[in-house]
Design goal:
CATH architecture: Up-down Bundle
Shape: rod-shaped
Distance between the termini: 63 Å
Oligomer: single chain
Strand content: under 5%
Number of helices: 4
Number of strands: 0
CATH class: Mainly Alpha
Helix content: over 70%
Radius of gyration: 28 Å
CATH topology: Four Helix Bundle (Hemerythrin (Met), subunit A)
Largest sheet: none
Length: 154
């Protein structure tokens, strides 16, 4: 009788250990998935906000170029300096755009990011103040649209 009780105790202990191991593995897998999801969310948040910031800086550089060319506004920088700043900002935006493409799994977000960049790039081509204002507003709306869509994604 004691032998049967001992066998039952050993089997019970082994079952308890097995069940505990199973629950611990599931809990560990759940924790790892959560950590990975949170890291990706943080990375996306950083990448999307960096892109929006770079895009806004490029927008300002494009506006300054147009204003200098068409309204002879006075700036601390020369025309060549503003153009160089604009090209530098464009390079930074393109770099940030590649990061957006790398971290997003939503093609429409990457497309929206590209559309916003294209709209900002059109500003210096505006022929007059009316076109400039329309181009600026379209670019600003596209940036806001990107931010809104990115917000849904993080």
């Amino acid at each position: 009788m004691e032998a049967v009780a001992s066998v039952i105790a050993v089997v019970g202990t082994l079952l308890g250990v097995g069940v505990s191991q199973l629950f611990q593995q599931r809990a560990l897998a759940r924790t790892e998935r959560f950590a990975q999801t949170e890291r990706l969310r943080q990375e996306r948040l950083q990448v999307y906000s960096a892109y929006a910031g770079a895009l806004f800086n490029y927008l300002r550089a494009q506006m300054d170029r147009w204003l200098l060319d068409h309204e002879q506004r006075e700036f601390d920088a020369t025309k060549a300096g503003l153009k160089a700043r604009s090209f530098d900002q464009r390079g930074q935006v393109n770099e940030a755009l590649y990061r957006v493409r790398l971290v997003t799994d939503r093609p429409e977000l990457a497309q929206f990011a590209q559309t916003a960049l294209d709209k900002v790039a059109r500003i210096p081509g505006a022929a007059d103040r009316e076109e400039y204002t329309a181009a600026y507003r379209a670019a600003e709306e596209a940036i806001d649209g990107f931010v809104a869509l990115a917000k849904e994604h993080v």
